[in-house]
Amino acid sequence: MNSCSMDYVIGIRHNIHICNWVKMPENEEILIDKTNMGPPSAKLFLYLSIEFLIAIAISCFISILGLIKSLLPKPPRDLNGNVVLIVGAASTLGTSLVDEFAKRGCSVVCVDEVNDSVQQIASDLQSRYTDLKEDTETSQEKQDELRKNPKITAYQCNLLNHNGIHDIAKKVKNEIGGIDILVTCVGAAGQDIFDTANTTLMSHYWTILAFLPSMLDRERVHIVGVTPVVSNEDAYIGSRTAIASTYCFLHLTMNLICN
């Protein structure tokens, strides 16, 4: 049988097959059967189309669920057992915050300049919500006890003295332990620009510096800054703006550290 180019006609059992002889670099010959190299069958195309449609349907369903979840309001965080420290607890707004946190089962630490007022607030809320127990446990046992039986304590502190704020921070750490939520509720209007800046701005700033290092060891912490009075005085408005900027900078810094 003679060959023309590289094509051969081979007859086997009266069947005609068209084959190619492909020469390899090593001068080896491989027989390639062209009879089975046709287009994909309709059944295979149908299966692939069904799988593709199922994948699209699942993706759309997951996207719709994500959109619905983003529109729904997030459930409030369970604050039961958290330790909350409120600076400026004797103010009207501060007293309301102490009451609300105590209702939610938090152990509240009240700090203010007026000792009689802050002690009275702590005593009233303590008798209303919890039973005060003696602290004879270790530091870890104190934390476990506070989460099971929250209590309300009070400390007197001069909020214009940064050394006094640092001393209170050390005392709270030794007697209470770490805190989960820090609320600075300090501010006063009707003063000159220097007193307003010291009372409204610097009290927030020194409080954050004093308590933030001990809060970094906690799993989750919150720092909230509010001013308890409203005023149109330029010095007071400027101090409030500076407080907002301080908390924004703190937020950005903590994000960089944590990430």
UniProtKB/TrEMBL annotation:
It holds the Pfam family adh_short. The keyword Amino-acid biosynthesis does not apply. GO terms for molecular function: oxidoreductase activity. SUPFAM superfamilies: NAD(P)-binding Rossmann-fold domains. Keywords: Coiled coil, Membrane, Oxidoreductase, Transmembrane, Transmembrane helix. Residues 115-149 form a coiled coil. The chain crosses the membrane at residues 44-67. Belongs to the short-chain dehydrogenases/reductases (SDR) family. This is Short-chain dehydrogenase/reductase family 16C member 6-like isoform X1.
